[in-house]
Structures are given as C-alpha cells and as structure tokens.
Amino acid sequence: MKRYLITGASRGIGRAIAEHLAGADVELLLHGRDIVALAEVCEAVKPRCAHVSRLIHDLAVPSGVSDLIDQVGKKPLNLLVNNAGIAIVKPFCEITSVEWEQIVGVNITAPFMLVQHFSPHMPPGSSIVNILSIAAKTGFGNWSAYCMSKFALEGFSQCVREELRERKIRVINLYPAATDTNIWTQIEGKWPRHKMIPPGDVASAVGYALSRPMDVTLENISISSLAGNL
Which residues pair with 153 in a beta bridge? Predict the structure, then answer.
C-alpha cells in the first residue's frame, strides 16, 4: 500500500493532484483548511482509493504542522506533495508583520517541517514534490512576500535534493505559470483566467514525473500558460 500526503488538497492544484493519483493501491492523506471543500474531494476520490484521510490543520503555525504530523502517524510515506500556500499581493511597504509571519509559516516553515520529519523514514523510490511557481525564479511588483517564500523553498529543496539523492528519494520541483485557481478571486484586479493553466495540467505533469524511472528523473518542470508571466 502506497501512502501519499498532499497538502492544500481541498481545491485547485491540490485537488487535481489527488484526483490524478488516486488508485486502488493508494492511501491518500489529504490536507486542507476548508472542511466542506476537503470533504467533497475525499468523497470524489474515495471510490478509486484504498483509503482516504482528511487532515484539517492550520499550517501557518508550527503547532498545526505538528498536529498534522501526529495524525499522519509513524507509517512511512511514499510521496509528499508540498502544495499548500498563500499569496499576499500588495506593495511591500504595506505588508503587516502578521501577514509576513503567515506566508513564512505556510509557504516555508511547513514544508521544511514536513520534509524534515518524513524524509528520514521514506523508502528508496519515494518522492517529494514541491509545487513552486515561476515566482520562485522571477520577482514581480507587489508580490514580494510570495516571491520571497517561493525563492526560499526553491533553495531549500535544491539542498534537500542533494542530501537525499544517495537514498534514491526524488525531489521534484514544479514551476507553473499563472494557474486557474481560486487564488485569483482573492486578488484585486482583472485577470485573464481563461488563458491560465488548468489545475489538471499541473497534476498531469506531477503524474508524468512520478512515472519516470529513478535514473531519468525529471527534477525541474516548468509549465507555461497563455496568460504569460503574471
């Protein structure tokens, strides 16, 4: 039985990945903060999965991450997908200390804690997938906190990849351009969502990378959209 932990699985990219990876020999551990949305995802994948668990925790604080780790239990993971994230879009002079702490907590500290806890027990052939962004490579005005967090996770994951390579644990980074998720309804402005990447395309890229043999691992995958660099 394979065990897959996916954070931020209640909607968007996380939900698409859960639906794509569901299988008869898979136990899905799905994290989210939206109780109703996460329940809907679990119901959607349950007919095709060996077992599905709901993990409702706030990753903005270390205690929330610790609670998630406790609920996952001691049985090793075969896949960890770090997908949960928040975006704060405003001039850097207007970012509050609370907002800064939230984005650092969810986008940096939570993935660090999860990788640090679970990777020592993952068997050879396991994978860690980080859903990053083109914002991990390019800075954009008014996106300073978000870009900072993605740059940080990019650097961390590159180092982790080298440390885990001898144990044959893959670290795969995805860099989607603008993706059509609910995040855009929370950001002021008019965005060309019809030109953005469907979440399913990102999920397909994850599935393809995981299907490759260990000796031909795709470690960095960029995914473009018609909306360009947003």
Answer: none
Distance CA 178, CA 191 (A): 10
Pairing type for strands 26-32 and 79-82 reads unpaired
- For residue range 187-228, what is the model confidence (pLDDT) as tens digits? 666 765 666 788 888 889 899 889 887 765 667 766 654 445
CA dihedral 41, 189, 85, 126 (to 10 degrees): 70
CA distances to 11, 26, 229 from 19, rounded to whole Å, are: 11, 12, 27
DSSP category for residue 197: B
Ordered by where they begin, the domains of the chain are 2-223 (3.40.50.720)
- Dihedral (CA of 93, 149, 111, 86) sign: positive
Distance CA 211, CA 158 (A): 21
Give 123-181 pLDDT, tens digit per residue.
999 999 999 988 898 999 998 999 999 999 999 999 999 999 999 999 999 988 766 55
- Give the residue among 107, 128, 131 at the shortest CA–CA distance from 205: 131
Q: Which runs of consecutive H residues, i.e. helices, occur in 29-126?
A: 35-45, 62-72, 97-104, 110-118
Q: Among residues 200, 201, 181, 199, which one has the least CA distance to residue 191?
A: 181
Residue 198 CA to residue 213 CA, distance in Å, equals 26
